[in-house]
Amino acid sequence: MSSHIEEFYSCLPEPIDLEESKKLIQDFCCRNTETDCKTVLVTSGGTTVPLEHNTVRFVDNFSAGTRGSASAEYFLENGYSVIFLYRLKSLEPYVRHFTGQAFLDMLETNKSGKEKCIVGELTFPVKQESVAAVLPILLRYQSVKETGRLLCIPFTSLADYLWLLRAVSESLADLGPRALLYLAAAVSDFYIPANEMPTHKMQSEAGPPTISLQLVPKVLEPLVNTWLPHAFVVSFKLETDESLLISKARGALTKYKHKLVIANILQTRKNKVVMVTTDSHYEIVVTQEETNSAVEIESKIVADLKQKHDHFIALVIANILQTRKNKVVMVTTDSHYEIVVTQEETNSAVEIESKIVADLKQKHDHFIAVSHCR
């Protein structure tokens, strides 16, 4: 990680429960490493930027977590294990279908209002007309819960999000190309450094406050190049000017070297996105007829990404199989190095095993010599 990013993190307050969250994340990733399951990190919702250390006021954005929560469900339906890093009190998978008073309107009690309710006798069945809406979602949720394929980790502030993103990334590293990052959270571009924030609530008697916002360093660079160099990383780009959309998305791909940008316009984001790679772009659209049939655009996005991710994994495996005859990595407890057979050596019938054995002989002789000296 660059010194600039390290310095930035050193000034960010850690979440109070960071170590507890790390343990949950590590255990979840270990289980998926053992089972060879594809795992996706879905980030969702907006980050707050506190204006005071004892936070009363903060800068926020309009993100409700709609895209992230829906996408998490579709990744689960497509066989992925999901780490859902979400803004506290934003939409969550499965629960998102029953927001506000809608869920209460689906319930009824087995007692009339005039009867005395005895604890243990009162039940809350789902109204018959609502069973068709509730039951399929409940069954999907219970199946996911029983198999342990969903881990939900909440955040609130920008600092919470960045620390947790780093923790998840470090834990996903062992999954290599089987890890997918779907960075749908609306992360603040600006923040107030801790040393410039007042400790207590700003008082109106002091007059209008002068607030100086600083740019948040882009952690996508260390994420792609250092934390998770072998993962399939997808970011999002939201614009209001359609003429800038593709160029901005391509600019991000060129700068950060990740795999794909999902670009969308604010006004049409619910029914149209543009999938942008370094050499192509194409639209994914939900028609009015599909919308009327409750088709969500996230189902199409995830299906497309699954296909791309599977292809990416296949290419990585093919590359490993192809290179195993001319390159190996020798790993010890304190170092690692490559042994390589060049094309010229291959043409001269040099086998990589001859180099491996020569290297091991040298190490074994050294080991024997050291043992005799003890």
From TrEMBL:
Annotated ranges, domain DNA/pantothenate metabolism flavoprotein C-terminal: 38-86, 180-300
Any Pfam family hit: DFP
Molecular function GO terms recorded: catalytic activity
GO biological process, one term: coenzyme A biosynthetic process
PANTHER family documented for this protein: CORNICHON-RELATED
Record-stated family: Belongs to the PPC synthetase family.
Protein name per UniProt: DNA/pantothenate metabolism flavoprotein C-terminal domain-containing protein
Organism: Timema cristinae (Walking stick)
